[in-house]
Specification:
single chain, alpha/beta, Rossmann fold, Dihydrodipicolinate Reductase, domain 2, 2 domains, 6-stranded parallel sheet, 13 helices, 14 strands, disordered C terminus
């Protein structure tokens, strides 16, 4: 099997996992790491028997590199990714695709013009729990996504919309399979210069509605999704990988209504209460693989490059998520907390304003 000679640019908190996985896949061979922290870079290169360079630009002219994985801070995505795309080198870049919408559009346009693969690290599309949940729902009518965590002091160059919510923006657009026609959102920043908590509602052209919650000011971490359709409800815990479906049973669909039964036989009320889930609403717990999503994502990237396939989440899909993220941020900036223009909060941060009002 031909191996994709791959370099990893940025081997920090997340990039080190990319390097580890790239070094173990059958489809790839790690040939180099670029890392400005010399101690970290040398250690990673030595561990995986690869070359180390302190400046990613030293990799641009190497003929032994077939593809690169970029895991640098978001503000540097455009600079780094555009350099490799411009030389026709396939790129996997961590989410979000870029720091802003304009840069994201330029990267997608460059990849298209160069006819080179650009995949973006929306890893939740490879989460086995999401894959099972997506298979269980058809034409969603309502989606609720919640993604919260404690403040990690990582990714502080971006706000919670590009840090966390961007995952769910991509997921719900995939599920709804229709254009977004309206965005309403509110949120606030507390820890730094960007928003830390945001609530958004998206309306799609086919009538589907999605409510999204993202926060990095929560004492516990949670990644969960509810998907409602005409056939029932799917509840997925994307962290623990538990997927449960709830659907009307044949007894409920074709038998006597439980409300009517309660009226006709009031003595059975407690029995009916106990049997709502089971007799009237079927409950099914689905088996979910324990496969590593990041490994599946990188393996998919390698296969796409080697076989000329389009990525599951390419530049186009990532750009769609960024466009809606931009609308969310605009709505947050324009939100009037007290119903008046004077009450609007934004841009971030609002520490001084908040303290003055509180005092």
């Amino acid at each position: 099997m031909k191996q994709l000679r791959t370099a990893v640019v940025g081997v920090g908190a997340l990039g080190r996992h990319h390097a580890r996985i790239i070094s173990t896949l059958e489809q790839t061979r790690l040939v180099a790491v670029a890392e400005i922290n010399a101690d970290v870079g040398r250690a990673m290169a030595e561990q995986y028997k690869a070359d180390w360079v302190g400046d990613y630009r030293d990799l641009l002219e190497r003929i032994d590199i077939d593809a690169v994985v970029v895991a640098v801070p978001t503000f540097a995505h455009y600079e780094v990714v555009s350099q490799f795309l411009g030389r026709g080198i396939p790129v996997f870049v961590e989410k979000p695709i870029a720091a802003g919408l304009e840069e994201a559009e330029k990267l997608v346009d460059l990849a298209d013009r160069q006819e080179v693969i650009l995949q973006v690290g929306h890893v939740e599309r490879f989460n086995p729990a999401f894959e099972v949940a997506a298979d269980q729902c058809e034409s969603p009518k309502y989606i609720r996504a919640e993604r919260v965590s404690p403040f990690t002091f990582r990714s502080t160059d971006i706000g919670v919309v590009h840090d966390l919510m961007i995952h769910d923006l991509e997921l719900v657009q995939h599920l709804a399979a229709a254009p977004v026609t309206d965005v309403q959102a509110f949120g606030f920043g507390l820890m730094g210069t960007n928003e830390d908590t945001v609530q958004a509602r998206l309306t799609f052209a086919n009538g589907c509605i999605a409510d999204l919650t993202a926060s990095r000011l929560c004492p516990v971490a949670k990644r969960a999704m509810q998907i409602w359709s005409a056939s029932g409800c799917v509840i997925a815990d994307l962290a623990s990988r538990e997927v449960i479906t709830y659907a009307p049973s044949n007894t409920l669909l074709f038998g006597t209504s439980p409300v009517q039964l309660a009226r006709e036989t009031p003595g059975r009320l407690e029995e009916l209460k106990q049997n709502v889930f089971g007799d009237f609403i079927g409950v099914e717990t689905h088996e979910v693989s324990d496969a590593d999503a990041l490994t599946a994502e990188l393996e998919s990237f390698a296969v796409c490059v080697l076989e000329g396939r389009q990525p599951l989440v390419g530049g186009t899909e990532a750009l769609q998520a960024m466009r809606v993220a931009d609308q969310v941020l605009q709505s947050v900036a324009n939100h009037a907390w007290d119903g008046s223009a004077a009450g609007r909060v934004g841009p971030f941060p609002q520490h001084a304003t908040t303290r003055r009002k509180a005092g």
